[in-house]
Task: inverse folding
């Protein structure tokens, strides 16, 4: 028995509508599918910098809890602890002991006078076979009246060799003392001369950012080099930084205070 004509007409119209729907969908731009925490960019790397040191227990606990929230939300990969105590810093010790999500790598600065073990390099892998160098220097060896001792010269020579041979895409140097010297007098002028030589090294080897304790200004831009000062002993004093794998975002580092991280 032949099917009624209205059935054939209905089937033909349904097929036509479905074909038009497919053509329309194929012509629309596809939205990327993001996996992971809302508000993060899946191809970016996030890390935290914080001023170490001693704090009252309630302030330290509050600070570590806020850091833990940010680590969980943005999946931060490591912490830069700006301290003069190195591995003896109480903030790092209590953070990694009491908070499970803060058991991630902590890279700490140290201020020493007679030994040269406070500087090192860490290479961080990024997506798309890109890398980030975190280079920590011992600025205590660079303090003084302008004449570097043997350990200070050894560190500068090590820094130049390290930057000269590295093939990383982005380079961050971290130190306890800011590069901007605010004090006047013989001691301030001497320290300024030493840090000017450090700046020349940064510019020559295309360092993207120098991260330190906060000096005269919290952030200074010179050509492609950013000087970023951490707020230090503030109760909520830490910064969230974002490193893009495809381009430099805000000259490598995007500063976001807790509470304003979108």
Result:
């Amino acid at each position: 028995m032949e099917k009624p004509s209205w059935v054939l007409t209905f089937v033909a119209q349904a097929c036509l509508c479905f074909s038009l729907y497919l053509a329309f969908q194929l012509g629309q731009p596809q939205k990327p599918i993001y996996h992971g925490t809302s508000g993060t960019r899946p191809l970016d790397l996030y890390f935290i910098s914080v001023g170490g040191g001693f704090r009252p227990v309630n302030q330290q606990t509050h600070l570590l809890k806020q850091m833990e929230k940010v680590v969980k939300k943005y999946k931060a990969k490591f912490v830069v602890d700006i301290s003069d105590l190195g591995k003896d810093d109480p903030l790092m010790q209590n953070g990694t002991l009491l908070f499970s999500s803060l058991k991630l790598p902590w890279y700490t600065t140290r201020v020493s006078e007679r030994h040269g073990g406070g500087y090192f390099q860490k290479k961080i892998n990024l997506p798309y076979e890109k890398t980030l160098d975190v280079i920590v220097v011992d600025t205590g060896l660079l303090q003084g009246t302008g004449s570097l001792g043997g350990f200070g010269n050894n560190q500068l020579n090590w820094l130049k060799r390290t930057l000269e041979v590295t093939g990383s895409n982005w380079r961050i140097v971290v130190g306890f003392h800011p590069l901007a010297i605010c004090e006047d007098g013989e001691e301030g002028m001497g320290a300024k001369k030493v840090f000017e030589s450090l700046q020349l090294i940064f510019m020559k080897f295309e360092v993207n950012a120098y991260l330190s304790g906060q000096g005269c200004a919290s952030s200074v831009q010179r050509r492609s080099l950013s000087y970023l000062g951490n707020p230090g002993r503030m109760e909520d004093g830490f910064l969230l930084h974002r490193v893009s794998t495809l381009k430099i975002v805000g000259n490598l580092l995007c500063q976001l205070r807790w509470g304003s991280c979108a």
Notes: The longest strand covers residues 44-51. The radius of gyration is 26 Å. The helical segments are 5-26, 57-74, 90-98, 150-165, 185-204. The mean pLDDT is 74.
